[in-house]
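help with this record:
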Amino acid sequence: MKIVFSNVMAIYRRELQSYFSSPFAYVIAGVFWLLSGFFFIAILLGPDGLIAQVANRDAQGITDPVDVPYQFLSVYLGVLGSLSLFILPMLSMGLYAEERKRGTLELLATSPITNWAVALGKLLGVGTFFLTLILPLLVYEAIALSASDPPIQPAVLLLGHIGLILLAAAVLSLGMFISSLTDSTILAAILTFALILFLWVVDLVATGIGGELGGALGHLSLVKNYTNLVQGTLDPSSIVVFVSYIFLGLFLTAQAIEAFRFQRS
């Protein structure tokens, strides 16, 4: 067990260092921060933002209470989830495709380190990098919500961000599997985006189909399960779905590398 942990950590440090030394990763980070900051201001302070809506309600004499912090958090995390749909495939596209291109995948496949350990280390590395993209946004949210009245419930705040992390881990895990199938990073990104887009909108397909089949497809929806957590609903089935996607991506990646090893033997 200690050896396996050491192997995972070695791959993790190697992968994380590659992201922090990659100019392309900083470009992705800059674009993500720019767009997330823009939507942060637009949702909160824009002409049609939440604060303007509250002011209009007050001017019209509407006295029904509005939970602005909760609405802001729900809308903003929804936007971050949509942005992640575009950002995460670009982060996962090179996890194995670059190894194939450089010719180092064969070394990984034939090394004493298990395929599961390699896949887990890579997933933890890219997941940690994505987490560093989220941390500055937490500062913005903390400043905006610190003066809110009524104050946001800590459980809702925590559950929403756990949902974002689970969503990212699921997408990155599936993207890692697709990256293990090709040496083209562009193709890996396109295929990952197509897969995630399908899982994002499958709830609409399920609604159109209806019945038991529609209900089963609806459980696969990323947006449906993510929305449950963002809205503060602790739905165990949503957590199970995300964890299942994570393990599915790890399993398929390990099998893909095992097949690659068999081809080279």
